[in-house]
Amino acid sequence: MEIEKIIKNGNTALGIELGSTRIKAVLIGEDHISIASGSHEWENRYENDIWTYTLDDIWSGIQACYQNLKIDVENKYGVKLTQIGSIGFSAMMHGYMAFDKKDTLLVPFRTWRNTSTGEAADQLTREFSFNIPQRWSIAHLYQAILNKEEHVTNIDYLTTLAGYVHWKLTGEKVLGVGDASGMFPIDSKNCDYNADMLAKFDEIVGPCAYSWKLTDILPKVLPAGASAGYLTREGAKLLDVSGDLAAGIPVCPSEGDAGTGMIATNSVAVRTGNVSAGTSVFAMIVMEHALKEVHTQIDVVTTPQGAPVAMVHCNNCTSDLNAWVNLFEEFAESYGISVDRNQLFSVLYNKALEGDRDCGGLVAYNYISGEPITGFKEGIPLFARKAEDNFNLANFMRTHLYSSLATLKIGLDILFKEEDISVDKMYGHGGLFKTKGVGQKIMAAAMNTPVFVMETAGEGGAWGIAILACYMKNKETEESLATYLENKVFCGDQGKKIIPDPEDVKGFDLFMIKYMNGLKIERAAVDSLRA
């Protein structure tokens, strides 16, 4: 009855996040606890050498997800969802969505997964003395300029997926600073785009004589807690096709999945960090000092309130691992055995813990797509072993778990060993951690750092952006996001901790020697099997 009253009175917050394979919606109450959820499965397309989602994919997915949430609310509480206290939208960071003055998408959405901007990323990194990864929106824009793509002349607005959804539902061309930091470098002191780099970019492209300057086409930057507009009447109908949802709901600044992951794991304070491991994997550490050198393996982004963060991002994590699990499921079904997928993952993941610490000499590369950290524009999943290696199920599974984190370890070793970046608490979340203890133990070995996993980590980014919507509406004057999270959301909860096993650490290091030496095998596979 209490929850029913909360929903009817609109004392709730809704978060919707568009992830790589799933769109999820989470409705929370004033205590920040999830009371209902909805989801929709989707998948990117590889069309004309581009990883993309269509606009129809985006809106049909969001609408299906929201309707799923509405059904969950009605089934649980007998209430039709018409009022919501505040809303937030988040999505995969980076990528390229360019629109003209008529709000027409000029080219298909180019997602973070594309690795076709190497020339632009390299040139901008040199010009800015600041690492610009291939995924970043500015790299996509500059590559389009280098390619002399005709559409660039007609750009009126450039944004991310989350920024696009926010714009269409509120009419506001704004973006949370965390997501904006994956478009263009941010000046944390001013919580805005770096002015010197903006001027440098305009100087570089000056000879092209475009009618726009970069600041003309980028979203306005907003920190967490700021008002980012209201759900319009058209936006309400676009979100809820039944027409039940009221307009005028306040909306917080949209964020990227990296920022919402930080929220979901209470890791926005200095010397805290988190690892998000799913389709891709990335680690984020809130820095207490700037990096000494520019490293192409490390991005510098920000928290949702603009604090500098070292980010190691890898395009590939669990997709290849999941494909092998699917193969085992198909094998079981061939015997007429119906297998619960969660149990299958649990059995296979736990089997990995029985394997040799160095995987018995086996090695694998999980490159579904390119992997910039190791210099691959394209990838081919690959498993290799010598005849005398200890080839069994436990080592096979352990190898693929190690492989899912290997490129991440390359970047983190730079942070810890070369840049002296320190972290007191590292939190894990995402699909890799769903089987309790296993992914967490492997991650601790890869990082040689204690890893915490909270119960709330399973709620994911949709819960994180719902928290940001709550923070915008309910924060006290001058109350920082870190304080709000610590005192009102997590209330001192640290989660379950696993410390690294020295033998696991040693074994992972031995695996990495073979992994690095074997990259030439992956290179030969890509070169030989390229279509």
Structure description:
The chain has about 525 residues and is an alpha/beta fold. The protein folds into three domains: about 1-90 and about 230-265 and about 460-495, Nucleotidyltransferase, domain 5 (2-Layer Sandwich); about 95-160 and about 185-215, Nucleotidyltransferase, domain 5, CATH 3.30.420; about 265-455 and about 500-530, ATPase, nucleotide binding domain (Nucleotidyltransferase, domain 5), CATH 3.30.420. It contains 18 helices and 22 strands. Strands 16-17-15-14-20-21-22 form a seven-stranded mixed beta sheet, with helices on both faces. Strand 16 (about 300) and strand 17 form a beta hairpin. Helix 13 packs across helix 14, helix 13 crosses helix 17 (about 500-515) and helix 14 (about 440-445) crosses helix 17 (about 500-515). The longest helix is centred in the C-terminal third of the chain and has 26 residues, at about 395-420. The chain is globular. The mean pLDDT is about 95.
